[in-house]
Amino acid sequence: MGQFFMKNISTIARCATLYRDAQLAMVGLNGYQAPYIPEICGAPGITQEQIAQRLHVNKSSVTRQLALLEENGFIIRQRSTDDKRAVKVYPTEKMQQALPVVRDTFLRWRLALTEGLTEQELELLEALLEKLAYRAQVIR
C-alpha cells in the first residue's frame, strides 16, 4: 500500500508542475518557480535560506530558481547588511504583476483536481493531508 500511496502523491505533484508550466508560460514563469512567487511577494526581503525552509527544497534548488527569476526580471537579490552570508530577495513590479496569475493558476488546478468531490470528502482530504504534511516534517 505504501508504495502506491507515494506513487499517487508523486504523480499529482508532477502533474501540477506540468499544469503550471503550461499556464504560466505566458508570463515567463515555469511550474517550479510558481511556489516562490507568493513567498517572495508576501515577505519582501525574505532570505534564500527562509525560502528553502518554507518550500521544503534544497538550498541549491532555491539558488538555481532565484537565478532564473533574477535573470528574467522577477526579483532583485541583495546581500544582507546584518549578515553578509545571507542574501535577501525582493520582488520586482514584474513579479507583483504575475502574482494574481500564479494564485489563479493554483486555484484552477485545485478546483479541477477536486472536481466531483463532496464538501465532506474535501474536508476529510484536507485534514488527512495536513496530518501527513506534519508527519513528513517531523520525521524528516
Give short descriptive properties of this protein:
140 residues, mainly alpha, Arc Repressor Mutant, subunit A, three-stranded antiparallel β-sheet, 3 strands
Can you characterise this structure?
Helix content is 66%, strand content 9%. With 140 residues, the protein is mostly helical. The chain has one domain (2-139): Arc Repressor Mutant, subunit A, CATH 1.10.10.10. It has a 3-stranded antiparallel beta sheet. Helix 1 (2-24) crosses helix 5 and helix 3 (48-55) packs across helix 4. It is globular, with a radius of gyration of 17 Å. It starts with a helix and ends with a helix.
What level of helicity do the residues show?
A: 55-70%
Radius of gyration: 17 Å
The CATH top-level class label: Mainly Alpha
Shape: globular
Tell me how many strands there are. Answer: 3
In short:
Helices cover 66% and strands 9% of the residues. The chain has 140 residues and is mostly helical. A three-stranded antiparallel β-sheet has the order 1-3-2.
Please outline the helices and strands:
Elements: H1 2-24, H2 36-42, E1 46-47, H3 48-55, H4 59-71, E2 75-79, E3 87-91, H5 93-113, H6 119-139
Antiparallel strand pairs: 1-3, 2-3
Helix pairs in contact: 1-5, 3-4
